[in-house]
Amino acid sequence: MIKTFFSSLRIILYLFILVLVYVFYLSRDLPSLERLETFDPAMLSTLYDRNGEVIGEFYIQKRVFVDIEDMPNHLKQAVISSEDKRFYSHWGVDLQSFFRAVVVNVSSMSFRQGFSTLSQQLARNLYKEVGFRDSITRKLKEMITAIQIERTYTKEEILEMYLNTVHFGHGTYGAESAAKRFFNKTASELTIGESAMLVGLLPSPANYSPLRNLNKAIGRRSIVLKLMYNQDYINYQEYMEHNSIIPDNIFYEIPKGKAPYFAEHVRRILEKQDEQLGIDIYQDGLKIYTTLDYRLQKIAEESVMQTLKKNQDEFNKQLFADKDKFSRLGYLSIFPADSVKMMLNGQMELYEELRKDLLVQCSFIALDTKTGEILAMIGGRSDYLDEFNRSTQALRQPGSVFKPYIYTAAIDNNYPVTTQLLNQPVALYRNNAKGEREKWSPNNYDYSTGGLTTLREGLQRSLNLISVRMVQELVPPRQVKDIAKRMQITTPIRAVDSIALGTSEVKPIEIVASYATFANKGIYSSPIAITRIEDKYGRIIKEYSIDQKEVLSPETAYMVTNLLQSVIDRGTGGSIRWRHKFRHPAGGKTGTTQNTSDAWFVGFTPNITAGVWYGLDQYSTSLGKGQYGGVAALPAWATFMKKAHQELNIPKDNFEIPSGVVEVEIDADTKQLPTNRTKNLEKEYFLKSNAPQ
Q1: Mean pLDDT within 555-559
Q2: CB burial readout 78-112, b (16+ within 10 A) else e
């Protein structure tokens, strides 16, 4: 008997030693005490506009960390009652649940019942080494790590970590992200029933999601509420009240960023700097403060999309009337014509294969004239979001929007704006698509001709023939190219005679930033999107400063500004005044390319510079007959500028005249100083160096 007793004792001792050795072996690969003490879950980074409004997020796992004090008590009670009712009494492992699970699982020879405490679940959520596959090894690892966690943190800290890391489904981690995803509110605003529904998701978020099966989610809510009632966390009246509510505030839409193309622009900037700054924008919980003004962004989106709809309707009308073109662009040999028409009219989503040829696209940039800060950005249609930002990545011909660079070169060469050129056709030579040299005879957009015409009138009326004669007689193409390069146009500009009509491609953001130089006294400001980055504790990682340099003299800049003012006051942009009633001092230019493939308007006030473009991604496809810049693009610009200046309460400041510019009264006919024969007088601006004597 004694011999048997000692033999049994020896076996138990050996088994105990084996278990200890196995536990020690398992613990070698588990997180160290140092890792346990540095709780640092991956958290999303948040984008803010200039007024502190959240406009976007970057994340792999969507998690927002909140303090336990900011979570409602009923949320904590729901978790404890449902997931670990002896949470405050155990030391990481609930022995009662453990032995019950052992009996059930051994008798059934399978894993039928779990026994994980909140600490064990937290161990599995935080540390990959624990694993997720059901096995005895994983359970032992969970238990070891849970005991270490309990030795390292208080119960409240463990509960806080759990509620900030647990997965609620649909890419959301933590109670704050789940509350926003399912109910579009913060965790602190959750009701008892909403807390119970969220906790009810935890055993199987995919199966119990209210977005997929509301009845199952309500059933899980009832179970959690019953547990809360049985454990005296809520009274009977609260249980009945919240158990009877049919949720009508489930947020089914996938939340979209408030300025998706701008957010993508910021993301691309930060991805180039992450190694240098030592940051991970997807996991570090950064606070990224940007220059965007969401008030202006909303105005821009409304203005641009309203005009885009009109442009799309006009495109559709002309397309449907041209059967051959419709058949070719709509792939009617593959798709039914009626279906394509319904898609273009917005009744169905347009097939991806057809979008390049049939969707009118857009881009819009608004900058602070003085600083270059990006106030609003649109990189394409809001109803067909894609990854291609047409404001920063598209290369499009600018057409007449490029003409101010020719006039800048002329003024920089001391030609007065009263210089006269013949408004008559001229023959040029250029290389065609095959690289062959061919004769080219450009025309004015309205096919008009005339006699001697001043530079001011040439730009005011956007006369192509005057621009062409300027590069032939006043400033050669090489000088125009140099001016564009000096004004920070980085795309290749071809120094050929056709430069007069803007045939070299540009990026919208560069042309808009370049135009701001005119209104900013010759000072170029690089477009800036970010003001500062903070870590999750509020410490500043980097502050971004304004990058400026003088590229034009104040006198040249003002003279071009004044020319562009006359475009709006008396020229091709005149409808800004008489139709759209925008009264602030402003300058700008329409632009249309050959075959009306591109429609532009770019302009400025002393405070805001903005540019809008419309066209199709397929360069060769026309917007339609008559869809000039002044028709297709100008309305969006005028509507935005009027509402933006009203929203910000911007005063009607005039452009400051530099000391090197003088206003002179001249003979309206001869453009010289008046004589005793002068019948009509007018005032004109000159550089002091070329004022009439």
Answers
A1: 98
A2: bbbbbbbeebeebebbbeebbeebeeebeeeeeee
Calpha distance 75→225 (Å, rounded): 11
Query: Token pair of 288, please?
Result: 């990224």
Say how far apart CA 245 and CA 225 lie, in whole Å: 12
Residue 23 CA neighbour count, 13 Å, CB half = 12
Mean pLDDT, rounded, for 671-689: 92
Among candidate residues 161, 201, 160, the one with its CA nearest the CA of residue 178: 201
For 602-638, what is each residue's pLDDT tens digit? 999 999 999 999 999 999 999 999 999 999 999 999 9
What is the mean predicted confidence (pLDDT) over 294-321?
97
Residues 46-55 have a mean pLDDT of: 94
Residue 38's pLDDT band (cuts 50, 70, 90): low
Residues ≥6 apart with Cβ < 8 Å to 444: 423, 461, 463, 464, 465
Residue 518 CA to residue 443 CA, distance in Å, equals 28
* Exposure on the CB side of residue 298, measured as CA atoms within 13 A: 6
Residue 50 DSSP code? T
- Residues 600/557, Cβ–Cβ less than 8 Å: no
pLDDT tens for each residue of 98-142? 555 555 554 554 544 455 788 778 777 675 544 445 556 666 677
| Strand stretches in 472-604, DSSP E | 523-525, 530-534, 540-543, 548-550, 587-592, 598-604
> Which residue in this structure is represented by tokens 């005044």?
577
CB atoms closer than 10 angstroms to residue 181: 20
Report whether 266 contacts 272 (CB < 8 A): no
Residue entry with tokens 């000039």? 628
Domains annotated on the chain, with CATH: 60-243 (1.10.3810.10), 399-504 (3.40.710.10), 661-690 (no CATH)
- 3-state percent helix, strand, coil for the chain, nearest multiple of 5: 45, 15, 40
